[in-house]
Amino acid sequence: MTIKTEDARLGMFVHGVAGGWIASPFWRRHFVLTKPSELAKLREAGIAEIEIDLSKGIGPAAAPAPLVPIDLDDIAEDIALPDPEPPQQSPRRRRGPASAEQRAQAVVDASKVVVKAMFDEVRLGKAMNVNALTPVADQIVESVTRDAVAMLNVTRLKTKDEYTYVHSIAVAALLIHFAQTMKLPEEEVSALGLAGLLHDIGKMAVPKALLDKPGKLEPPEMAVLRHHPEKGHALLSAGPPLPEVVLDVCLHHHERYDGRGYPKGLTGDQLSLAARMSSICDVYDAITSQRPYKRPWSPSEALSRMRSWSGHFDTELLDRFIESIGIHPVGGLVRLQSSRLAMVIVGNDRDPTQPCVRVFYDIPAQRFIAPHDLIATIAVDPIHRAECGQRWFGERWETLAAEILEGRLSPAESFMPSSSTPKGVLS
Ligand SMILES: [Fe+2]
Q1: Which residues pair with 4 in a beta bridge?
Q2: How far, in Å, is the centroid of ligand 1 from the Cα of 256?
Q3: pTM for this entry
Q4: Each residue of 168-206: pLDDT tens digit?
Q5: Do 13 and 122 have their domain in common?
């Protein structure tokens, strides 16, 4: 595929440049663009077009929405955005009428109707028919069990009008998938699905004008919005009996591990497993959702940032969540199928499970190798599993990781005395 050089972006595999390699500022003929300096070099060389290989790297971006800076309050409360345009759906794969993505979309569409009707009734002060949601939760369980990746992808697309409903369905799907990979009992998985669907029901008790307000909320408005967990809990407590976990998640999904969340400021040891899981799923969906006028973070970028927020989440649980969705954060250490260690350096919007990685260590040979970048596709060298940097390299890992990520791994690292063999080699 040929694109204009100005449209080039990190993660693309450059197969050729206009004018041939005589015009190229690079000594390599084919390579992955991984550094901003490489992009700049390409543009400064006056090359009009480049040829990229979509099987080995990411493609051109859809027209990007302006980037709105996101802060933690925005994330937690999902501030409403200006008037929507239809979201840019990723092109449907033409694989017949029953592709995984189409099946997942059908489940989301059907769930949306029921969830919206119920939420609208609550806003009008009518009694809640929570029983209608049980089959919806069961259908999402079935869909996640069958097409987890498709389901998690489809629920990332949201218009402003449907944001709260689809966010609820997305959190349900994430919680179900998380619970299944943690091998929780079936009835707990279903109950967590219902908890995801109802976790933000308290927002129906918040004035719509405030929910729909574009831009940042003022502190008094934020204070009103922050009552939604308690309002939701009161609404649910007044209705027919529900599993305890549904009430727990509704009340505690904005609590933080370090006690700086709300409404009660509980700390990690006071929060149930379900509450800690829901806070991870809630934030992950909020920051990766594709919405008009708000550019989402890619899944790997989002996970990388969530990992960097100290005190927000149960970090062990966050690592299990990352493992459960099979997406590796930028900066994360991974083992490739070829038994080499690599670091994720650029996410891949087209397929977040196949990011661009920098390979730097040969496990069987127990030695560093000249760092080089590749897209970890099934055809090239897929990711086998996540690894723990400290376990392999001990206290050196932090410095080493920065050197690898910034592309300045010292040549001296290419030789490692046997006395300092990485710990992971022995495992
Ligand atoms: Fe919430």
Answers
A1: 49
A2: 13
A3: 0.70
A4: 999 999 999 999 999 999 999 999 999 999 999 999 999
A5: no
